[in-house]
Amino acid sequence: LCELCIKSCPLAVFVEITQYLDLAELLGGGVFLETLIGTSFSWLDILCYLCGTILIYPLDVLIKHLSTLK
Predict the structure, then answer these.
(1) Distance between CA atoms of residues 60 and 70, nearest Å
(2) Contact of 18 with 36, CB cutoff 8 Å
(3) What is the 3-state secondary structure (H, E, C) of the chain?
(4) Could you give the angle at the alpha carbon of 27 between the alpha carbons of 40 and 16, nearest 5°?
(5) Burial of 15 from C-beta contacts in 10 A (0-12 / 13-18 / 19+)
């Protein structure tokens, strides 16, 4: 769980950066590309991705610890 979160956070931040750079429009726009990449950049989204990644670590450790108790 933690490994997946750590690997997916940079991808999510990359997508936010492409939204900031308006990459969908630079590549010709279109509904498909705008849906795939998105068009709305937000610093709050990046903050949420980072907070989620940081918070998932103790949860993952707790789940692994509880699974060894069984």
Answers:
(1) 16
(2) no
(3) CHHHHHHHHHHHHHHHHHHHCCHHHHCCCCHHHHHHHCCCCCHHHHHHHHHHHHHHHHHHHHHHHHHHHC
(4) 30
(5) middle
Angle between the 2-20 and 43-69 helix axes, to the nearest 10 degrees?
170
> Of 5, 1, 24, which Cα lies nearest the Cα of 13?
5
Q: What is the pTM of this model?
A: 0.77
For 7-62, what is each residue's pLDDT tens digit? Answer: 899 999 999 999 999 998 999 888 998 898 888 999 999 999 999 999 988 888 89
